[in-house]
Amino acid sequence: MEGKKIYSQGGRGLKDRGAKEAMIRITRKVEFSAAHFYHNPKFSDGENRRIFGKCSNTNGHGHNYTLEVTIAGEPDPATGMVLDLKELKDILQREVVDRMDHKHLNYEVPELAGKIPTCENVATVIWGLLEPKIIQGRLDRVRLYESEDLFADCTAEKNGSGR
After folding, report:
1. What is the pTM of this model?
2. pLDDT digit string (tens) for 9-62?
3. What Å distances lie between residue 94 and 18, 47, 70, 87, 147, CA to CA?
């Protein structure tokens, strides 16, 4: 690495003098299956059908969701990990999978009561469930796939401005 000096900063990782310290992101993926339908009680049945199409059928329909959760931070000097991935797996199991897997989101998930369980709203609820449980690193992104070609991201950034 000719012409470039690397300095250790108090065991907090390597960085160039004057450069920002690198941010590490780790991502864990889990899957769950759930049913839902879209319905706004303020709309007429016709308006619900017009806006939400077949997703407004009150019998519901199901998805095999894929959830990716990203934690950002600096690796702990003692372990080399931003967050123990086993701990993250346990949190995801307890807070998301146990709560939502094989459930009807409209009726069986209290955190979604009064909300239309769109991919966006479910991702936001998941963020709210996870954020207080992450005590090492910080929750950076919740990406929820409703299908192979549709996902919603809930991130630590608001309006692209960051935190």
Report:
1. 0.83
2. 344 444 444 446 678 999 999 999 999 999 999 999 999 999 999 999 999 999
3. 42, 37, 17, 11, 23
55 is known as an active-site residue: yes
Catalytic residue among 31, 102, 131, 157: 102
Which CATH architecture does the domain made up of 23-155 adopt? Answer: 2-Layer Sandwich (3.30)
Q: Exactly one of 36, 39, 119, 146 is catalytic; which is it? A: 146
How far is it, in rounded angstroms, from Cα 133 to Cα 36?
Answer: 26
Q: Is residue 154 annotated as a catalytic residue, yes or no?
A: no
* Domain range list for the chain: 23-155
Q: What is the DSSP string of 120-163?
A: HHHHHHHHHHHGGG--SSEEEEEEEEEETTEEEEEES-STT---
Cβ(136)–Cβ(83) below 8 Å: yes
Per the model's pLDDT, the better-predicted residue between 159 and 31 turns out to be 31
Write down the catalytic residue from 55, 74, 95, 108.
55
